[in-house]
Amino acid sequence: MSLTPPEVQRIRNDFPVLDERVGSSPLVYLDSGATSQKPVSVLEAEQDFYVRRNAAVHRGAHTLAVAATDAYEGARHRVATFVGADEDEIVWTKNATESLNLVAYALGNPGSPVNLGPGSEIVVTEMEHHANLVPWQQLAARTGAALRYVSLGEDGRLNAEDLDVVLGEKTAVFAFTHASNVLGTINDAADLAARARRVGALSVLDACQSVPHMPVDMHALGVDFAAFSSHKMLGPGGLGALYGTREALASLPPFLTGGSMIRTVTMVGSDFMDPPQRFEAGTQPIAQTVGLSAAADYLDETGMDRIHGWEQHLGARLVDGIQEIPGVRMIGPTEAADRLGLVSFDVDGVHAHDVGQFLDDRGVAVRVGHHCAQPLHRRYGLTATTRASAYLYNTEEEIDVFLGAVADVRRFFVGNVA
Predict the structure, then answer these.
(1) pLDDT tier at 316 (50, 70, 90 boundaries)?
(2) Which of 36, 39, 149, 161 is least surrounded, with the fewest CB atoms within 10 Å of its CB?
C-alpha cells in the first residue's frame, strides 16, 4: 500500500518551506537523507513547550517542573512505541553519532560486558557511515582488538560469503547499517543480528536511514543496540536516540558523567542511576523530545507502510530514470526493491560539486560529496557522488524535474554529447 499523489499534495501543505523558491524556480527538496523538513505540528509542539511548560526536568517539585518532566518522559514513551521498544530502552542523546559513540566508548570502559583486547575482533561493513566506523576504529585502537569488515559487491550489497568468513568466535561486536545513506541498500537487519547472536557478539545497528522511511520494530529485529536521529524523521535538530535492550543498557558503564545520572555522590565516589537516566548527564534536550514525539505522531498517522510504499515508487522512478541518462553512473542496487528512495551517481567528466551547483540553479536541492562514507566511495573508484533522496512530501513531478536537470548537466559542462 502506498500514498497517492493527491494525498502527497495534501501532506505538502503541512510543510511551509516547500513553498519557497530558489531564484525564479520552485524549490525541489531532494536532500531528506541529510535532514528532513518539519511539518507545522512539530514546529508548534516545540514552541508550545517553551511557551507553556519550559522548566528543568527531574530537578524540581513545582508544577511547571512536573509538567516539563511529564512531557519529556511522555516523549520517550511515544518514540519507544514508534520503534517497537519499551520506554526504558530509549536513551536521549544529542544525535545518532553520539549514540554510537556512547556504545563504542562504554564498551571499552572497565565493567564492559564484552572482553575486548588482543585476540578479539570488532566487525563493521564497507558501507558504513563514518559515525558507525570511526568510533569502532578508536575502540579497536584503545583495546588492541582487531577491526575487520564485510566487503561490498559490485551490486551495492554486502558480500554474503564474507559474512561467514568474517564473523566468528573472536567477534565481540558487529556494527552495521540498516540502510545505506549512499547506495540505498536495505540490509536484512534481523538476519545480521541473528548472525551476531550465534557467535556470541553484540549487535549495533545504525538505523538513521530506516526509522524515518519504513516500519521498524527493534524487538522484532533482535538487535542489542540501535541509533537514530530526530532531524531525519521530521523532528527537531540536536536530538538523537539510542535504543538498547534492557539487559544491554544495564550492562554498560556510564559514558558521560555529572548531574542527572547519579543517585548519590560523596567526595570519594558516586552511585549511578539505572538506564536510561544513567546515560543522560547534564541538561536534557527537552523541547526537542517533545517535537520528536509530534513527529512520531505525524508519521504514524500518515502510515509508515504507506510512506515506504510511496518512497519505493519514487525510488523506482529515480533508479530507472537516472540509468537512462548517457554518461551518468549510478552506484547501488539497480532494482528498486529492498532499497531506499534515493540515488547516488557520478556524471562523467563533471565533478559532483559542479553537478550540485547546476541543479541548485534550477531549484533542485541535493547532497554532494562523499556523504560521510569515504571507504564506500573508494570501493567504487570514486571520491564523491551526487545524491538525491526523497521523502513522503516529494512528488512524481519533482522527480521528473530532477531527472531533466541531470540530463542537461553534461551538455552544459562538456558540450554536445551523444
Answers:
(1) very high
(2) 161
Whether residues 224 and 262 share a domain: the answer is: yes
Query: Are both 102 and 165 inside the same structural domain?
Result: yes
Indicate whether 148 and 248 sit together in one domain: yes
Q: What is the pLDDT of residues 30-75, one digit of tens each?
A: 999 999 999 999 999 999 999 999 999 998 889 999 999 999 999 9
Looking at the structure, tell me whether residues 289 and 345 fall in a common domain.
no
Chain segment 68-109, per-residue pLDDT in tens:
999 999 999 999 999 999 999 999 999 999 999 999 999 999
Rounded to whole angstroms, how far apart are CA atoms 404 and 321?
Answer: 9
Residue 37 domain flag = no
Three cell numbers at 213?
A: 522511511
Domain termination site, one of 300, 334, 360 = 300
Q: Which tens digit of pLDDT belongs to each residue from 318-366?
A: 999 999 999 999 999 998 778 999 999 999 999 999 999 999 999 999 9
Distance CA 150, CA 223 (A): 18
**Contact between residue 101 and residue 227 where contact means Cβ atoms under 8 Å apart:** no
Query: Is residue 230 domain-shared with residue 320, that is, in the same domain?
Result: no
- The single residue of 372, 379, 380, 407 carrying the catalytic annotation is 372
208 carries an active-site annotation: no
Cβ–Cβ under 8 Å, residues 311 and 390: yes
Peptide bond into 276 cis (omega under 30): yes
CA dihedral 146, 151, 157, 159 (to 10 degrees): -100
Residue 286 C-alpha cell reads as 527537552
CB 186 within 8 A of CB 209: no
